[in-house]
Design goal:
The chain is α+β, with helices and mostly antiparallel strands and 286 residues long. It is 20% helix and 24% strand. It contains seven helices and 14 strands. The strands form four sheets. Strands 2-7-4-5 form a four-stranded antiparallel β-sheet. β11 and β12 form a beta hairpin.
Length: 286
């Protein structure tokens, strides 16, 4: 059984995206709201649309509310990115869609959105649906605590994104039965030694962990994803490989890194890129 679990963990490939803009607005309260909304049809859609369960995404929003202490002052947005090279993002339209439900959801310029709560859509077993073919888009949670520098992410925010994504089916992973079981566990993000994949804003040169005076450059192996993906058709980070970095939460927290740890980025197109140096006495590993 131990070997089987190790095999399943080895197959897991999860990506959570980063947005170039901070989240705006407060998350809706858990209670459903019956706010009147206008209807709109999604034009140009194909029969097999890119969509997620509305109920699952509401459950993910509840997880955010329940774990707000990980990201004080933050709000929750969702975001999509292109999963394939030929996916056109211009003209992207989003709606909550069911047999009796058509609720338009506004998109920001960076393709992020806030999902409204609607009791009728829940009863209708609606889907959150884009006018694109299935597997065209990578879906992510986007959680930002105030005060984090533009070229950094906060560890607690990333951990909460992982928790939200596990519940809302906002991850890409090899659909092995063990991996699917892992997503249903109580707290796989924090308790299992799995690498979580994230996207930075631009092509990455290096990532440095900082927490007070403690400083450590992330190993190069944690950047840009594995050289030989096991099942590329099921992994949605490959198109944006240059922006990928991985986080293993279990290892970082066991080594004493806190929620307020910052992951500071150097980008390939920075004016004077250079390998970040650790402060005297600081470790060079995670």
């Amino acid at each position: 059984m131990k070997k089987r679990m190790q095999f399943g963990l080895g197959l897991l490939r999860i990506v959570l995206a980063l947005s170039p803009l901070a989240a705006a607005g407060a998350d809706s309260p858990p209670a459903a709201a019956d706010t009147p909304v206008a209807s709109v049809e999604v034009h140009g859609a194909v029969p097999d649309r890119d969509e997620k369960s509305y109920r699952a995404m509401l459950a993910a929003m509840d997880v955010f509310v329940q774990n707000r202490s990980l990201a004080p002052g933050a709000s929750l947005r969702f975001k999509v990115l292109p999963r394939q090279a030929d996916v056109a993002m211009d003209g992207l339209v989003l709606q909550i869609s069911g047999e009796h439900t058509k609720i338009p959801v506004p998109l920001e310029a960076n393709y992020s959105f806030v999902l409204p709560r609607n009791a009728d859509a829940v009863r209708d077993d609606a889907a959150v649906r884009f006018n694109r073919q299935a597997k065209s888009l990578a879906w992510r949670a986007d959680i930002r605590s105030p005060g984090v520098p533009a070229k950094a992410r906060r560890l607690g925010d990333l951990l909460l994104e992982c928790k939200v994504a596990m519940v809302g089916d906002l991850i890409a992973y090899v659909h092995h039965p063990i991996n699917m079981m892992i997503t249903k566990l109580q707290d796989p993000c924090r308790t299992l030694p799995i690498n979580m994949f994230y996207f930075a804003e631009r092509a990455l040169f290096s990532v440095t962990l900082t927490d007070g005076t403690r400083r450590s450059v992330m190993p190069a192996a944690m950047l840009h994803g594995p050289a030989a993906p096991m099942m590329p058709s099921q992994e949605d980070w490959i198109l944006l490989r240059e922006r990928v970095f991985m986080v293993k939460f279990k290892s970082l927290y066991e080594k004493g890194w806190t929620d307020d740890t910052l992951l500071q980025f150097e980008y390939m197109d920075d004016e004077a890129p250079g390998i970040a140096q650790a402060a005297p006495g600081a470790g060079h590993g995670q």
